Amino acid sequence: MARIVDTSKIVRIRDTSNLGVKVPADFIQNTFGARPVASTTRMDLLQLRDLMSEMLQSTGGRPSLSHSSDRVKLPKLESDWAAIEEISQRLAPQLVFKPSPAQVAAVMLHWAVSHMNEEDIKHAMKA
To answer: Looking at the record's lineage, which domain of life comes first (predicted)?
Structure first.
């Protein structure tokens, strides 16, 4: 049975709110005594959460990491894996999707590799 919808009474709602002015980081730092939490030399949970939300994409099933290709088996230490499991549990309430420990480990590995510069790699190869 077909449904009849009267579209003549539909009113479009427009957002007329003003977007806030972006406050410079140095103003916040000076006013409130804040300090930067993100580091370029080590990852913190806020960075990991942001990366997870950027890289996890759902296509209808379990969300997967964007641009991921093959699944590989990596040797791991029990203590490292336990820490990664705990991190994934802590991140779960803050994300739309619940990340698996393997997804968290993949994002952490991606971040670590992307932050290695050519000099670090050359130095590691000489050792």
So the answer is: Bacteria
- Residues whose CB falls within 8 Å of the CB of residue 85, separated by 6 or more in sequence, listed in order: 101
Distances from the Cα of 7 to the Cα of 4, 12, 43, 62, angstroms: 9, 11, 52, 37
| Identity at 96, one-letter amino acid code | V
Each residue of 54-87: pLDDT tens digit? 777 766 666 667 666 677 788 888 999 999 999 9
Contact 49, 95 (CB under 8 A): yes
CA–CA–CA angle 49, 121, 71 (5° rounding) = 50
The burial class, CB within 10 Å (0-12 / 13-18 / 19+), for 101 is middle
Q: What is the residue type of 87? A: I
Low-confidence ranges of the chain (pLDDT < 50): none
Structure tokens at 29: 């730092």
Q: Taking the complete model, does pTM exceed 0.70, yes or no?
A: no
Domain boundaries, the chain: 43-58+72-127
